Amino acid sequence: MKPQLILLGAPGTGKGTQAKKIVEKLGYTHISTGDLLRSEISKNSELGMKVKGIMDRGDLVNDQVVLELLNANCDIANSAYIFDGFPRNIEQAELLETNVLKGIKSKAIYFNMDLEVLVERISNRRVAPKSGEIYNLLSKPPKNEGKCDISGEDLVHRKDDNAETVRNRLEVFRNTIAPILDYYESKGVLVSIDASRSANEVYDLVEQAVNS
Ligand code: AMP
């Protein structure tokens, strides 16, 4: 049985791009708590309305709320998942273990990168919600401005991908990551990879980590 994968790393370190490759090549199911929350906002659900302001500021949504959403959207006994965006703090790491994984084999992959370069990188990110493609206006621009190369759909600039919110999201990350890394290190399931390398090189490192 393939290990459940937990992707750790600051916003903009390439977790979403790599998750897409892992799904295509290794048959995993991608579950992103950020995507689940954004989908609640676009449905205008009660939960969506509750979390919108928090997400616009780049702060974290309540742990139990995110845990319930995660549990409602995964069937851990029957699929191998990539957890992207969860856990965001040590409490969530413990909740993931006790309420979701419950002892199932897992591996945590840390996308290690210098945080200083990320503000520019994330501010230039554009996403295609339907195809899941992720572009960067500087390093990976679409062929036709504002349109996805694959689906032709309009690209979206996430509301929380503006410089001010990004700085707050990075600050939240800086304040919470160390205990999460210690937690997975002490369980012996942490693999740290250099996320500043090219997407293909990073993928090779991810695949090695999955198979190690
Ligand atoms: P992401 O798409 O992972 O960058 O997440 C976007 C935003 O969704 C974050 O800035 C938080 O406001 C919220 N969010 C996503 N995942 C979580 C989580 N596990 N716990 C709390 N808030 C989350």
Please write out the topology:
Elements: E1 4-9, H1 15-26, E2 29-32, H2 33-42, H3 46-57, H4 63-72, E3 81-84, H5 90-101, E4 106-112, H6 118-123, E5 125-127, E6 134-136, H7 163-187, E7 190-194, H8 199-211
Parallel strand pairs: 1-3, 1-4, 2-3, 4-7
Antiparallel strand pairs: 5-6
Helix pairs in contact: 1-8, 2-3
Bound molecules: adenosine monophosphate.
The site of adenosine monophosphate has 17 residues, from helix 2 and helix 3.
Return residue spans where pLDDT drops below 50 for at least 5 consecutive residues.
none
| Order of the strands making up the biggest sheet | 2-3-1-4-7
Report how far apart the termini are: 13 Å
CATH architecture of the domain at 4-28 and 80-113 and 169-211: 3-Layer(aba) Sandwich
Instruction: List the bound ligands.
Output: adenosine monophosphate
Q: Could you estimate the helical fraction of the residues in percent?
A: 40-55%
Query: How many beta strands in the DSSP annotation?
Result: 7
In short:
47% of the residues lie in helices and 15% in strands.
Polypeptide structure, described:
With 212 residues, the chain is α/β, with parallel strands linked by helices. 47% of the residues lie in helices and 15% in strands. The strands form two sheets. Strands 2-3-1-4-7 form a five-stranded parallel beta sheet, with helices on both faces. A two-stranded antiparallel ribbon has the order 5-6. Helix 2 crosses helix 3. The longest helix has 25 residues. The two termini are 13 Å apart. The model has no long low-confidence stretch (mean pLDDT 95). It binds adenosine monophosphate (AMP).
